[in-house]
Amino acid sequence: MKTIDTYDFSGKRAIIRVDFNVPLDAAGNVTDDTRIRAAIPTIRKVLDSGGAVILMTHLGRPKGFDEKYSVRQILPTVEKLLGVKVDFAPDPVGDEAAQKAKNLKAGEVLLLENLRYYAEEEGKPRGLADTVTDEEKTAAKKAVKESQKEFTKRLASFADVYINDAFGTAHRAHASTALIADYFPQDKMFGYVMEDELKAIDLVMQYPERPYAAIIGGSKVSSKITIIENLLDKVDMLIIGGGMTYTFMAAMCGKVGDSICEPEMFETARDIIRKAEFKGVLLLLAQDSVCADRFAEDAETRIYRSNGIPSGWQGLDIGPEAVQTFTDHIMKCRTILWNGPVGVFEMPAFESGTRAVAEAIARATAGGAYTLVGGGDSVAAINKFGLASQVSYVSTGGGALLEYMEGKELPGVAAIRKE
Ligand code: AMP
Question: Do the Cβ atoms of 54 and 14 come closer than 8 Å?
């Protein structure tokens, strides 16, 4: 496999799939440039080695050409962070884009408009009326798959080499993330973001130093079940926090009041408890909770046992005893994976548990543990508490990270690795 460090870019045009799907304010200003910043080393490497760069990305979920989702809005941020002038093509596969790509000279950069202006990027038909028959749906799907080939070929024709640096969309088999790689059998590679992400995740998934703990939070068991099952084969300790706590408590006949709870997952929760016991994995659930009389920042709060919450009250954060137990156990581990907040950390009244977990992970890191934080909300939490630089690795991928950890092959990764 080729790598960005060994490839000779001189005189070559590289088309780089970046993840510039950044948040914008109402005026179109970038409010968090983390993802753009992350891609700079890859772009710089190509430019500094005598190559030219074509950048392609999606932004939001447009249904067609729509100024609200225009990549033009992020052009000034890209120029500022890169420190060079960047040209722009207002139709990602238009004649102007083709011409500009062809004329690119070493050291020059071209940014293409939002790939998702075209349904072909995702390869899914758009705007089908509810009334269409199954046959019509199948025909529409077939048609977009056919035109997707042309779209992909067109993008590929702009460059000599393809670099995928968009970990956030690596779990999607889209034109720019996977299909395009086939046009560059000898000239395809990961960018630094992708390389770093895969290295960091492989480290915890394949070669963890023990004891190894996973802390899984968030709201629902249903969205985390596959990763929990996969982790049961790998970890020594599984710490479960957040809204999931109450499904487990209720599944064991506890009283959870008005807390978030999924009765259809009771059997699954009991199964996880049995499997953990069978595999010798220590399963920790919060024994107490900070409960509120409403889902609101200014609600009245009380501490209850997590399995004895009266009706009219809901658990919104782990309680003080659970903070102590979780912290003690986290501090003993040499590898720690954290995905999902253990409480409604967006509200200061219910952030203490998540803050304590983040601080314990930072302290464990200082003591030599390898710690990986991933998944949108835990990344937002670690940033909120200003601790991102005190853990070993913060993953930028949400869905992609979860799928990779679930053991699935990501199309964006497979497309590059494939011979
Ligand atoms: P997820 O997307 O499943 O990782 O869930 C993240 C969300 O779970 C965050 O927005 C938290 O506010 C929320 N959350 C965490 N703990 C609780 C809880 N005890 N009750 C309700 N929501 C929670």
Answer: yes
Task: Report how far residue 412's alpha carbon sits from residue 276's, in angstroms, rounded to the nearest whole number.
Answer: 32
Cβ atoms 344, 294 nearer than 8 A: no
**Is the distance from the beta carbon of residue 377 to the nearest atom of ligand 1 less than 6 Å?**
yes
Whether 220 is a known active-site residue: answer yes
Report which protein residue has its CA nearest ligand 1's atom 18.
243
Put residue 248 in one of left, alpha, beta given phi > 0 → left and psi -120 to 50 → alpha.
Answer: alpha
Q: What stretches in the chain show pLDDT beneath 70?
A: 376
SS3 state of residue 256: strand
Pairing of strands 109-112, 308-309: unpaired
Whether the CB of 219 sits within 6 Å of ligand 1: yes
Note the pTM of the prediction, 2 decimals. Answer: 0.84
Give yes or no for a contact between 349 and 292, defined as CB atoms under 8 angstroms apart: yes
How far the first Cα of the chain sits from its last, in Å, is 8
In the block, tokens 């939001």 appear at: 60
pLDDT tens-digit readout, 373-391: 987 688 889 999 999 999 9
- Is residue 60 within 8 Å of 18, Cβ to Cβ? no
What are 42's two structure tokens? 């890859």
Mutate to test the pocket of ligand 1, among 216, 247, 377 (most ligand atoms within 8 A of CB): 377
How far apart (Å, rounded) are the C-alpha atoms in residues 22 and 27? 14
**Ligand 1 atom closest to Cα of 375?**
4
β-bridge mates for residue 301, sequence order? 292
> Counting runs of H as helices and runs of E as strands, what totals does the chain give?
14, 17
Give the whole-angstrom CA distance, residue 361 versus residue 390. Answer: 8
